[in-house]
Amino acid sequence: MESQANLTCQNLPTIFSSFVDTFVDFSVSGGLFLPPPITPKPQNPLQTIFPSPTRLIAIGDIHGDFQKSKESFKLAGLIDDHDKWCGGSTTVVQIGDVLDRGGEELKILYFLEKLKREAAKVNGNLITMNGNHEIMNVDGDFRYVTKEGLKEFQDWAMWYSVGIDMKKLCNELGERACVEDLFEGIPLEFRGVRPEYFEGIRIRIAALRPKGPISERFLSKNQTVVVVGDSVFVHGGLLPKHVDYGFENVNEEVRDWICGLKGRVSRDLVRGKDSIVWLRRFSNELAKDCDCSTLEHVLATIPGAKRMIMGHTIQESGINGVCGNQAIRIDVGMSKGCANGLPEVLEIDRYKGLRILTSNPLYQNGKEASLDAKRKDGLGFLLPELGPKQVEVKA
């Protein structure tokens, strides 16, 4: 009888998570429940180089907008009407900036993790990346956090506390649970902040700081630089110094910092205007302002690389390419917290090449004149003359 009770105590967190995941509807609960992570802590080096898939989809910044996130996946035929993975062996790269500007950040993080698991079962692959806003939040920089975003983290903290309390019910886990202080070292008040936001900010710091439960579970699994086939993915851009430093080193240093295993990462890597997640030299909407010579040099030093795909800078004209399509810019400001743009995704097909899938009705109705005019301004759109087959996004 005693051994049976001990077994129950040891498995209590798993039982609780499984119960909630089974009986609480994902869309109703806000997507805050899943079984425990496959690996509690990252042990192996993050994969940086991936083989060229038959079909590759790139999705730009989604900034806390769950509906637009789902529309982007539907646009590419990656999820069905029940939000389940149906993309087969497709490889997907989400370029970062899930956090800030919206109130459904956690819902998206859990949703992406769910899709990763579903895709892996059918040889698909969903790669998630760090943007500048992920780095900012781990740093405790909440300039772009919304009050809805604070509320979502407060809801999460309530359930997190329930889990801790359940652990305390077990004698063998009670001592460990008692020393787990989510708010250790976090002040009670913040200068210049209205008192009604103190609790939400404290919770957000606790969840996202290095070794925080949300940052470690989700953000530590993100890459900062990825090469998939002949495409290099990065949130902001790469300079020669970043290539010289080594992509594997970049990914490992950022991961270890997020896990609380090392101090702050170098400013050259993830902070400052010339860092990997902040650079805009190749993403200015005017092609003449893009540093094509530096881009060409960077790509020449990365074996097999033909193009750099980046987010970070909103392209009001939609996904486009400059510098002979060596720079592909995919941030269309789709989040309602940004430009509330129409979802677009980039598709790279081994046999069909590059094309843009868009929910823009101008393409669906065959009206391309406005884009033709912009081509004269040097934006170098990737759309073929007849346009790709467009997919209408259903609400």
UniProtKB/TrEMBL annotation:
Q: Record's Pfam families?
A: Metallophos (PF00149)
* SUPFAM superfamilies per record: Metallo-dependent phosphatases
Which residues are in the Calcineurin-like phosphoesterase domain?
55-162
User: Which InterPro entries does this one have?
Assistant: Calcineurin-like_PHP (IPR004843), Metallo-depent_PP-like (IPR029052)
Coiled coil feature spans: none
Query: What is the name of this protein?
Result: Calcineurin-like phosphoesterase domain-containing protein
Record GO terms (molecular function): hydrolase activity
